[in-house]
Amino acid sequence: MKYSIPKFWRRKEGYYQIILTKCRECGKVAFFTYVRCPYCGSSNVELVKSCGRGVVEEFTISYNRVEEGEEYLPKIIAIVRLNEGVRVVGELVDIDLSEVKEGVEVEAVLRRFSSDDPHGLIYYGLKFAPVIKGA
Amino acid sequence: MFRVLCVPRPESLTGIVGWGVYIPRQRVKADEIASLWGFEKTLPKALWIEEKAVASVDEDTVTMGWYAAKVAIERGNVDPELIGAVFVGTESKPYAVKPSATIIADALGISKKKLSTDMEFACRAGGEGIRLAIALVASGTIKYGLAIGSDTAQASPGDVLELTASSGAAAYLIGPAEESVAQFEGVVTYVTDTPDFWRREGSKYPTHGEIFTGEPAYFHHIMSAVKMLFDELGLAPSDFDYAVFHQPNGKFPLQVGKKLGFPKEKILPGIVTPWIGNTYNGSALIGLAKVLEQAKPGDRILVATFGSGAGSDAFSIVVRDGIGERVGRGPKVEDLLKRKKYVSYAQYAKSRRLYIRNIG
Ligand SMILES: [Zn+2]
């Protein structure tokens, strides 16, 4: 599957890190970047990086065959509640289909999303994997 | 020749501030590979290789190096903005041209004002990265330097290398000695032009120079580097508590240690290859991490890398106070060794793209 190289480059920070908006007025945190707090409307907000840890809340298994992306199938797509309290959607890796369940502790890991083989760009971004014991 | 004793060696101004390791979850048994390709049943045992780690289809040198480096930074509790150099030692770059180091650095939020490059010297480029980071920190050019060794090692299916060639990464955050938990006491490197192993531009898999792989390459270079280190520091094997060597298989490090005068008990704590395979640039550096995670303040560790082509870096490292607390800040090598899922040769072949697909 062909990605737009400029689009990927512009959004790179959001693929490499989980950026959150924290409101200095009401204290709430929202996923991704806002100039105004989506809860109270205040513009007194700051951007913070998530620690990347959370738990699986819900998940689904995707068998959707994307041309040239077949080797990544099947994909587990999960809703993860981050330790900061917000919910994000991400792919779950390093876990068997039989092991996926609500409450599994996960951490964000850098993986390949896709690659324009054999000559194009390789696209990296964060997915979620079960926390390695001791981590 | 007289040694000058009153001038400190520059490397002694530096030490290991943090470290991290990554081993992929999948394992394939060496017996299965040996049986599939018609090797003698006794071969895996003779090489002391039981199973090897296999990176998933979405993992590569960049993603594994990223994880190891992330843990190294967390262990060191250092602001990524203060890291002035990122070196990635690898012989399995995802891109032939385009650095892996810049992807890892950007993804970790490391300062844009930095040195950053991928280095190639078969399995010892990661060791050279540590030497460069030491030099930059010792000279005051940078405060912290990150040296990563990461590989998804390639082996032609059916080649004896396939029994061991595996995937994994290690990262070391080098900084001022006083902030470190393991101080460099001395470092030397010994390199020559030796035709033991190579991969030509455009070749998918490496080739080995058969009789050159043992004595003239691995043993000669490691022993030369270690003896040089002993001479320069006035040390002997009895002065060391641990000895870690590059591990192309489980057998070679025990043999080279014995030749140098180390008892097996000082070598075994750093052995990892029998259970994860030869992670190339990760090999000796994962062994060192495993030793750091069990060492006590005051312990002296010998580390000798090896890379074909050929060369070896020998390091003498003295463990400092605070090591135990820093071990607890991230996953240990033991945790990563236990985290595993056995896969078939077919799954390994898919994960490492040993097939040809009609794409592009
Ligand atoms: Zn608000």
Q: Any chance you could write out the topology, listing elements then pairs?
A:
The complex is a heterodimer of chains A (135) and B (360).
Chain A: H1 5-10, H2 12-16, E1 19-23, E2 29-31, E3 45-49, E4 53-62, E5 75-82, E6 87-92, E7 105-115, E8 122-130
Antiparallel strand pairs in A: 1-2, 1-3, 4-5, 4-7, 5-6, 7-8
Chain B: E1 14-22, E2 26-29, H1 30-36, H2 43-47, E3 51-54, H3 61-76, E4 83-89, H4 100-107, E5 115-119, H5 125-138, E6 144-152, E7 167-176, E8 182-191, E9 197-198, E10 207-208, H6 214-233, E11 242-245, H7 251-260, H8 264-267, H9 273-276, H10 283-292, E12 300-304, E13 311-319, H11 323-327, H12 333-338, E14 341-342, H13 345-351
Parallel strand pairs in B: 2-14, 4-5, 4-6, 11-12
Antiparallel strand pairs in B: 1-7, 1-8, 2-3, 6-7, 8-13, 9-10, 12-13
The structure holds zinc ion (ZN).
Structural class of chain B: alpha/beta
Relative helix content of chain A: under 10%
| Unreliable sequence segments of chain B | none
What count of structural domains of chain B? 2
Features:
heterodimer; A: 135 residues; mainly beta; OB fold (Dihydrolipoamide Acetyltransferase, E2P); B: 360 residues; Peroxisomal Thiolase, Chain A, domain 1; 13 helices
What features would you describe in this structure?
The complex is a heterodimer of chains A (about 140) and B (about 350). Chain A has one domain: OB fold (Dihydrolipoamide Acetyltransferase, E2P) (Beta Barrel). Chain A is built from two helices and eight strands, in the order ααββββββββ. Chain A has helices spanning about 5-10, 10-15; strands at about 20-25, 30, 45-50, 55-60, 75-80, 85-90, 105-115, 120-130. In chain A, the strands form two sheets. Chain A has a five-stranded antiparallel β-sheet. A three-stranded antiparallel β-sheet of chain A has the order 2-1-3, with no helix packed on it. In chain A, a hairpin with a 4-residue loop joins β5 and β6 (about 85-90). Chain A is globular, with a radius of gyration of 16 Å. The mean pLDDT of chain A is about 95. With about 350 residues, chain B is of the alpha/beta class. In chain B, α4 links the parallel β4 (about 85-90) and β5 (about 115-120). In chain B, strands 5-4-6-7-1-8-13-12-11 form a nine-stranded mixed β-sheet, with helices on both faces. In chain B, about 30% of the residues lie in helices and about 25% in strands. Chain B is globular, with a radius of gyration of 19 Å. The model of chain B has no long low-confidence stretch (mean pLDDT about 95). Zinc ion binds next to loops of chain A.
